[in-house]
Specification:
256 residues, alpha/beta, nine-stranded mixed β-sheet, globular
Length: 256
C-alpha cells in the first residue's frame, strides 16, 4: 500500500491524431508527481500507439494496456480501472489537455476533506481544421453539499443544466470498487459517461467542486461523440431506458 500512486489516470487511446502529444504532455508534466498514467490502446490505426510507446519509454509512470479488439471508451476505461492501483482514479480523453496542477489540486482537496469525488470547473475548446477557434468556460451551478437533494441533481442532469462529464473528476478507487461502479459498453449505449456520472453521484456521500478551471475538453471534427454509430437510435433508447431505471432506483418518479 505504501508505494501506491496517489492518482491513476486512465486514457483510452484510439485515433487521437495530432492531439495525443499535447494530452500526454499535460499528464506527464503534472505537478503531482506521484501518479500512474494508464494508456488503454484501443486498436488505433493512425500511429497513436507508437506515440504512446514513445512516451512510455521515457516515463516509467506510463503503463500500456493493449485491447485485442476495438472496445470503445466504456470497456477500455473498465480495463484501466482493473489495472489501476492509485488511491484515486481519473479518466481523461485522448484529445484533451489540462492545467499542470489539476491533479495536485484535486488530490489535495480529496485528502483534506476525505472525499469520494472531487471535480473542477472546465472549458470547452472548439477547433476547426485543427486550429483553436474559441473557448467556452463551464461553471458548475452552486448547490449545497446536502445530498439528500438528489432529486435536484437528477432533474438538472436530465434538463442539461448540469454537465455529466466525468473527465474533470477524481474518484476514490475503493469507492468505485465497493459500489461496483463501472462503465456500460459504449458500443451498445450512447452517453455512457452520463450514466456513470448519475450512478456515481447517486452512491456518493462526500463530494465537492473546486472553483478553478483546470480541464480543457477539445471539440473537433472527429470526436467520437459526433460519430453516427455512437449516436444511433438504438443506443440513445438504451441510454434513456437506463436513466429511467436509475431514477426509479433512486425513488424519483415523474409524478412525485
Amino acid at each position: 500500500q505504501m508505494n501506491n500512486p496517489k492518482v491513476s489516470i486512465i486514457v483510452p487511446v484510439h485515433n487521437a491524431g495530432i492531439y495525443l502529444e499535447k494530452c500526454l504532455d499535460s499528464l506527464v508534466g503534472q505537478t503531482l508527481n506521484d501518479i500512474e498514467i494508464i494508456l488503454v490502446l484501443d486498436c488505433p490505426t493512425d500511429g497513436s500507439d507508437r506515440v504512446a510507446e514513445k512516451y512510455a519509454e521515457r516515463d516509467k509512470r506510463i503503463k500500456l494496456l493493449y485491447n485485442e479488439q476495438n472496445l470503445h471508451t466504456g470497456e477500455s476505461r473498465n480495463r484501466g480501472v482493473r489495472m489501476a492501483v492509485g488511491e484515486y482514479i481519473g479518466f481523461f480523453d485522448h484529445d484533451d489537455f489540462c492545467e499542470k496542477d489539476m491533479y495536485e489540486l484535486l488530490y489535495a482537496e480529496a485528502v483534506k476533506e476525505n472525499l469520494e469525488i472531487v471535480r473542477c470547473n472546465f472549458a470547452c475548446v472548439y477547433t476547426k481544421d485543427d486550429k483553436e477557434e474559441h473557448t467556452e468556460k463551464y461553471h458548475y451551478p452552486d448547490f449545497s453539499h446536502n445530498l439528500s437533494d438528489r432529486r435536484w441533481m437528477f432533474e438538472h442532469v436530465s434538463n442539461g443544466l448540469i454537465s455529466c462529464v466525468i473527465w474533470n473528476h477524481i474518484y476514490r478507487r475503493d469507492f468505485l470498487l465497493d459500489k461496483n461502479l463501472s462503465f456500460l459498453d459504449s458500443r451498445a449505449i450512447c452517453s455512457e459517461d452520463g450514466i456513470f456520472f448519475m450512478e456515481v453521484y447517486s452512491q456518493a456521500e462526500r463530494f465537492k467542486t473546486i472553483p478553478q478551471y483546470l480541464y480543457y475538453h477539445v471539440f473537433h471534427e472527429t470526436n467520437t461523440g459526433k460519430s453516427v454509430v455512437y449516436r444511433s437510435i438504438e443506443n440513445r433508447i438504451s441510454f434513456f431506458e437506463k436513466i429511467y431505471e436509475l431514477l426509479l432506483k433512486n425513488g424519483i418518479s415523474e409524478d412525485a
